[in-house]
Design a protein that fits this description.
Elements lengths: L2 H6 L7 H6 L7 E3 L3 E4 L2 H12 L4 H15 L9 E8 L4 E7 L9 H7 L19 H11 L7 H14 L1 E2 L2 H9 L1 H6 L19 E2 L2 H13 L2 H4 L1 H13 L6 H5 L9 E5 L2 E5 L6 H16 L13 H21 L10 H4 L2 H8 L21 E8 L5 E9 L45 E4 L5 E8 L3 H15 L4 H6 L3 E3 L2 H4 L5 E3 L6 H8 L4 E3 L10 E7 L5 E5 L6 E4 L1
Parallel strand pairs: 14-15
Antiparallel strand pairs: 1-17, 2-9, 2-18, 3-4, 3-10, 5-6, 7-8, 8-11, 9-10, 11-12, 12-16, 13-14, 16-17
Helix pairs in contact: 3-4, 4-7, 7-10, 14-15, 14-17, 14-18
């Protein structure tokens, strides 16, 4: 049966007995009036409190994002960017919001090559990788346009301020990622503000305080985005970056704007799948879905619960994603600088043409351009309010703690999104003044044929994001898995060189049939089993499904420290 059938028959959700013998580690979470799914329980609780107070899904999402910026600095923060999709129940429509920042006006290719004379890209921790942080402006702009009247901006940021000032217990996955960044934080400007008095990363269960961050959050709560892009916080950002060779100015910060491009979509499995247009990589998943749909129509592959995890099914997904990444790396760039043939890329006809390149018996020896180049750490979260409106939001500082550069006295790191700029003049993503880099962030919303909400979900993790989205959609739409079951099933990830040190490998989580590994190798895939923290490449998913009855059904990833919670 399909997951669309499950929507009409909610009794087909897994029973406790079925779950105990299946792949899921826990039941889905259900609610009727509101739901939050994210990677930290303190953030989920804070978001739910806003919903219970009559706040909107947008207000809850900003609350969740602000708390995550405190308790997960290894993945997100005020120095990062954000993207989101907004579902409006009354209009039955989806809108995109782009909160990504631009390169400084003085950062020309000539300046970059002067300061980084070797290589085709910037070093990961160089000051020139710091683009203007966009997430705070996005939060504040959303609050201005989606105020419920039930809560104030001070209410929304209160819990984040409390946790930053009074301290929070460091959770297991966060502690591990923090420890990985310990030496980089010691080596970069004011990075020690994010270490203990002993200059170490906090350990699991240790209470860590961030007084500088609390002060910045108070500025935002009282003054809105002017409290960040102007005043002492902006002074610190500019002064610190200039200390370490950056060229960002007050004008760069004050001139930042949130943009509102039209959301993009395709259809798959009976639903419309909505994504964020470039400079984000949302079209990657949509291109792959169109390619897989064409493969199915041609009889090259079929998806079902019985065939889940089979070599032919995993092989088809890998090859479709490799083709999609080739297109992504060729075409995705800042649309203010480059023409992007979105209509053609997202057409069913183009998907059919790409499907012709698929060989069901073996992996393509090479795919022209477009393998993932860099990876990242990110947070993603979902909210649905009592009115049925939904938000899919992703916030990120990019690779771990981003640049690891901390504006003095603020307690947060600045992102390194400029790491995705090229220093090759002919590349679409070549660095330029006021240009936005290729962004890996992908929020996702799916809607039914009548425009009603189907799911709001994400699978964070850099270039894992489109791979995770494709896998979850097949799990839910073709195999009939519920959100938690889809999340708990093993995933695969096409790896890359910059983050993992290996290129083109396919990582498989433990839990697949033992014969899959050898079958993929026989087809030509360089596959292996990812163990321990290598599984972090699989990202972390959060999914909220809405049944026809209005019941909200949510799942949260055991690969992170979070949960889903509703009422």
């Amino acid at each position: 049966y399909s997951f669309c059938t499950l929507l009409a028959c909610p009794n087909m959700l897994r029973t406790g007995a079925e779950r105990l013998v299946g792949a899921s580690t826990r039941s889905v979470v259900m609610g009727m009036k509101g739901m939050v799914a994210c990677s930290n329980p303190l953030a989920a609780e804070a978001g739910l409190a806003i919903l219970k107070s009559g706040g909107s899904a947008v207000e809850a999402a900003v609350t969740v994002g602000s708390v995550l910026a405190v308790v997960e600095p290894c993945s997100t923060g005020l120095g990062g960017d954000g993207f989101c999709l907004l579902y409006n129940k009354e209009a039955k429509g989806v809108k995109a919001v782009n909160g990504s920042g631009r390169a400084p006006a003085a950062l020309t290719l000539e300046q970059a090559l002067k300061d980084v004379p070797a290589g085709d890209a910037l070093p990961a921790l160089h000051a020139h990788t710091v683009t203007v942080p966009g997430v705070v402006a996005m939060w504040c702009d959303l609050l201005d346009t989606h105020a419920s009247g039930a809560v104030t901006r001070e209410d929304i940021f209160r819990r984040a301020i409390e946790l930053a000032a009074d301290g929070f217990p460091v959770t297991p996955v966060t502690a591990s990622l923090w420890k990985n960044a310990q030496e980089n934080l010691k080596a970069t400007a004011h990075g020690r503000e994010l270490l203990t008095a002993a200059e170490t990363a906090p350990s699991v269960g240790e209470v860590f305080k961030r007084p500088g961050l609390a002060a910045v959050l108070r500025e935002i709560a009282s003054k809105g985005k002017n409290g960040f892009y102007q005043g002492w916080v902006a002074d610190s950002i500019v002064a610190t970056l200039q200390e370490v060779g950056g060229v960002m100015t007050h004008e760069d910060l004050a001139g930042h704007t949130t943009t509102y491009p039209a959301a993009v979509k395709t259809s798959y499995g009976g639903v419309d799948v909505w994504g964020h247009p470039p400079n984000g990589q949302g079209i990657t998943a949509l291109i792959a879905l169109n390619t897989l749909e064409a493969m199915e129509k041609e009889g090259k592959v079929s998806f079902s619960k019985e065939k889940w995890g089979s070599p032919e099914v995993i092989h088809a997904q890998i090859e479709a994603l490799r083709l999609a990444f080739a297109d992504a790396r060729k075409f995705i760039a800042d649309p203010d600088f480059e023409d992007i043939p979105l209509e053609g890329l997202l057409s069913k006809e183009y998907g059919a043409e790409r499907a012709k390149l698929f060989d069901a018996t073996k992996a393509a020896a090479s795919v022209e351009a477009g393998q993932p180049l860099k990876d990242s750490c990110t947070v993603s979260f979902q909210t649905v309010d009592k009115d049925g409106n939904a938000v899919s939001m992703v916030n990120s500082t990019y690779v771990g703690f981003g640049s690891n550069i901390v504006p003095k006295g603020t307690g947060f790191t600045l992102q390194n999104r400029g790491y995705n700029f090229s220093l090759v003049p002919t590349d679409k993503n070549c660095i330029a003044p006021k240009k936005r880099p290729y962004h890996t962030i992908i929020p996702c919303i799916t809607t039914n044929e009548d425009g009603s909400l189907h799911t709001t979900f994400t699978n964070m993790g850099g270039f894992m994001q489109p791979q995770g989205h494709v896998q979850h959609l097949i799990n839910m739409l073709k195999c009939g898995f519920d959100p938690q079951e889809s999340i708990d099933h093993p995933r695969f990830c096409i790896l890359n060189d910059a983050y993992s040190g290996i290129f083109g490998k396919v990582a498989l989580e433990p839990g697949f049939d033992p014969t899959l590994l050898e079958a993929l190798k026989a087809m030509g895939h360089d596959a292996y089993i990812a163990e321990g923290m290598q599984r972090s490449n699989m990202g972390r998913a959060q999914i909220i499904l809405r049944l026809e009855s209005g019941v909200l059904v949510a799942g949260s990833d055991h690969r992170c420290d979070g949960c889903a919670i509703g009422y």
